[in-house]
């Protein structure tokens, strides 16, 4: 009888050891599943008009000043905040969910694409409505007749711009600067004021208006355009000098019939351009002034 009891105890002990081993294996399996779930990247899908997406990317890359752009997608819409390699220009563009045909059901951040090549491919799409699918490594666009696939670039997180702008939960963009002068200028009229190629743009600010002046490299030629009854040039209250190339590129991707808000400060700080497009994109451009020249 004693032998039978001892044998039974040994069997129970063996069963307990097996149960403990199974429990350990089960815990390890659960841990692996949790880790895999964390690493799993959600697939993002949404519908959008071709013009809205084209304009969003064009504004985010500032007409070609930025070769690569980072953006994020969520149920609230699409946001792109980028700084050019020379740290002269910050672009912030949002397209709220109200302007999407079908909104995303998940969120992804820090998605990088080669904007110039994507724009070239998108320009070949003729259909008005398109479907966007973002997988772990690909950015895909489909229309009825076209399919475009571009790689997502492996890039580090974008620069911290929290001291320059804030993008609120409702996707409203708020610059962190105050300005003394603001003018609504028609895009086509401002483009027409850029009469001397590659010459810096001198904005001269007055209470009732603004003028745009350019000087050629030798200083022999001068071209000036007055907006909104600008006053005498000698009585300008402040002057802000911007790069011709940066301003021209930004204006080139804005609707020529729309207006762009230009804001300037007496202090040495970035000039602000604000643009709202008919396709729903809101864009903010902060441009560092040029301070090495005197006019």
Please provide the count of β strands: 18
- Measured on Cα atoms, how large is the radius of gyration? 28 Å
List the uncertain runs: 34-38
**Percent range for β-strand residues:** 25-35%
Main pleated-sheet profile: 8 strands, antiparallel
The structural class is alpha+beta
Helix/strand order, N-terminal first: HEHEEEEHEEEEEEHEEEEHEEE
What is the helix fraction of residues, given as a range?
10-25%
Report the average pLDDT across residues: 86
What is the end-to-end distance?
Answer: 112 Å
Rough shape? elongated
Number of folding domains? 2
Write the CATH fold name of the largest domain.
Proliferating Cell Nuclear Antigen
CATH architectural grouping of the largest domain = Box
Q: Using the coordinates above, name the CATH class of the largest domain.
A: Alpha Beta
Strand order of the largest sheet: 5-2-3-4-18-17-16-11
- Report the total helices: 5
Provide keyphrases for this structure.
295 residues; DNA Polymerase III, Chain A, domain 2; 5 helices
Please give a structural write-up.
- With 295 residues, this protein is α+β, with helices and mostly antiparallel strands.
- The chain has 2 domains: 44-175, Proliferating Cell Nuclear Antigen (Box); 181-287, DNA Polymerase III, Chain A, domain 2 (Roll), CATH 3.10.150.10.
- Helix content is 24%, strand content 35%.
- The protein is built from 5 helices and 18 strands.
- It has helices at 2-39, 50-60, 115-122, 187-192, 244-252; strands spanning 44-49, 68-74, 77-83, 89-96, 108-114, 129-134, 138-142, 147-151, 165-167, 173-175, 181-186, 201-205, 210-215, 222-227, 238-242, 259-264, 271-276, 282-287.
- An 8-stranded antiparallel beta sheet has the order 5-2-3-4-18-17-16-11.
- Strand 7 and strand 8 (147-151) form a beta hairpin.
- Helix 2 runs antiparallel to helix 3 (115-122).
- The longest helix is centred in the N-terminal third of the chain and has 38 residues, at 2-39.
- The model is unreliable at 34-38 (pLDDT under 50).
